[in-house]
Amino acid sequence: MAERCRASKRDGSGQCNVAWGLSPEGLCLMHDPLRRHVADAARRAGARTTGAVPPVPFPSNGKWRVVPPHAVPGRRPPKTLEDCVRWASWCAFAAATGLLDGTSVREVNRSLATLKDSFHKRDLVAEVRRLRALVTRYEQERARE
Q: How far apart (Å, rounded) are the C-alpha atoms in residues 87 and 94?
């Protein structure tokens, strides 16, 4: 079995159990007092990239089927391709940490894929319209020659 962080969870429910990024003392980044500045910087960077999603209390079973609106990235639906990337990153984190159950993660990812395809189709249609207008203009110019 892999070595785990030796620190106790803040709520006293047991051992931390993080198995990656351990210090020689056997502590994860968040529990290692010698790396506190690195952990603080990681928290700040995470808050900037996730839209400063506030923590929400876990339900009794430890997993959400749905999350409250204030807990999703940007606190709003994804509206751009960049939002889809942000949501996909958040969803991967939620899946890996057990915040969301597998069914919810799969459904969110399906919705993000549909939205992403819609953005691409919208952009392609706009490009086709632009190119058709350009061809029409070239044909008109050629007819005048």
A: 10
